[in-house]
Amino acid sequence: MDKIKLDILGLSSSQSQSGSFALVLGETHGKRRLPIIIGMFEAQAIAIEIEKIIPNRPMTHDLFKSFAQSFNFEVEEILISDLKEGVFFAKIVCSNGIKQIDVDARPSDAIAIGLRFNVPIYTYETVLSEAGIVLTDESEEEEAEPAKETVKKSKPESEPLKDLTNDKLNKLLEDALAKEDYEKAAKIRDEMNRRN
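The structure corresponding to this sequence follows.
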């Protein structure tokens, strides 16, 4: 079966299931989208890697990478392999240079691991034709102009980040990482990068 390459297009909170997120994959050379509902922790693991945030301690998917590399296994690709009764199945395709092994996984975990190994994500035509959404010109316009979301802040920032010194930003970044507030850490990191 021919494989179709997918790219990660976005990650947003799911409108249909509270506490869940929609991971949207799109075919590299086409207009179809493959939305997959994933849990909050898996969404966080994917977002952390996309944003290149380094947590203080290794997360589970980082541990998998260290473990695999310790035994000279590399991940070659991620394959969204099947869809049964509305549930997606994935495989992490690994190799030690001699032997190839397919490890069964949830797509969210497989993608979080694949991002850490910087490998491509694929699926089959059967999966994409069954669960894919074809973009029309109308939905492309909507995608180009996404709806504004209201974000609730737990507490207002005492000072805008742009008004803080580099030392203060470093301290805030350390605190955010210690509290595992990766959204705040990403904002602080963006402000630090903007200054460099």
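The longest helix spans residues 182-195.
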